[in-house]
Amino acid sequence: MDAEVNFQLLSGYVTLVTVVVLGGFLLLIAYRILIGEINTKGLLNDKAEGGPSPARLQLCLLSLGGAFYYLMMVVNMVQAHASLTTSPLNLPEPPKELLALVLGSNTFYVAAKANSTARRLSGILSFFR
Fold it and tell me: Which of 105, 111, 20, 23 is nearest to 65 (CA)?
């Protein structure tokens, strides 16, 4: 066998092992959530006010959506690259719009958290006046 065939076999094995390990972790986490070993109760609730937190919900949805979008970019690039050439492959540059969306989402969450903390501290300080 020549070096190119060996590299392609090795690359295939590494990809397979990576998918199996990451898939195993995903299944293990999902299983532990389902049997209750990982507590997700109140994950999206506002700890101070008790109800659902819009800031946490939007942060969760936009982060997961952005990660999935970037993953699909990587998968599409790998599929297109595999049929064209055997040269090294680099990760795609994330779109500036995606980065701005995730940054805005995190900024909104941090601002909401700061506002909630400031209101709590204001209530505590007014107690001592």
Answer: 105
Structure-derived torsion over alpha carbons of residues 13, 18, 23, 24, reported in degrees to the nearest 10:
90
pLDDT tens per residue across span 75-117: 888 887 766 666 677 888 999 999 999 999 999 999 988 988 8
Contact 44, 64 (CB under 8 A): no
For residues 124 and 67, give the distance between their C-alpha atoms in angstroms, rounded to a whole number.
39
Which residues have CB under 8 Å from 57's CB, separation 6+? 44
Which residue's structure tokens are 């006046």?
129
Structure tokens given for 36: 């209750």
Whether the full predicted model's pTM is greater than 0.90, yes or no, is: no
Task: Give start and end residues of each alpha helix (H) in the chain.
Answer: 3-35, 54-84, 96-127
Q: Is-contact 86 4, C-beta < 8 A? A: yes
By C-alpha distance, which of 92, 99, 97, 100 is closest to 72? 92
